[in-house]
Amino acid sequence: MRKIISFMHISLDSFVAGPNGEMNWIKVDEEIFDHVGKRISKGGTALYGRVTYQMMENYWPAAGDEPDASKHDIEHSKWYNKVHKVVLSKTMKDADLTNTTIISDNLSERINEIKQQVGEDILLFGSPTATHSLIQLNLIDGYWLFVNPIILGRGIPLFVDIKDKIKLNLMTTQQFTCGVTELNYTVDRQ
Fold first, then answer.
1. pTM of the model
2. What is d(CA 174, CA 154) in angstroms, rounded to the nearest whole number?
3. What's the pLDDT tens digit per position in 124-151?
């Protein structure tokens, strides 16, 4: 069975964005981009909420074609254009979307169908609202968290309305020179 891995930058106090969705506090550099690039190349499906998908779709399809494109832009653009995308949205329609599936209802059933398909992990990028929905349905199998050295004090939290404890197993950690620490957890289903 394929696993859903939530990929998220968080503040030390567990916010994924500022009060108005700000993400200008997130630290990224070539070291992180290289690390992330190796990991996502093993992902067969990208999962997004509508807002994050639209943000990605406005940038990544052509980012690698720009004259001043960085190595990361070229590689991620190539990956983004070939990976199958799944978007959780009650308002979008997928009639004209290439290599993209929209899920607007029966979330648990539809996600479990995708998890049953042959393939690599399903990578959930950002998308706090989608992440909250999947946490509530116990559909996330792992968390790949990039803890940024900042305390926001307020904003959009990663974990909200948790009904039951979620036990995690720490798989790996990595410290980056910019001060970000990656924590890689799997959900303990036992």
1. 0.90
2. 26
3. 988 888 999 999 999 999 999 999 999 9
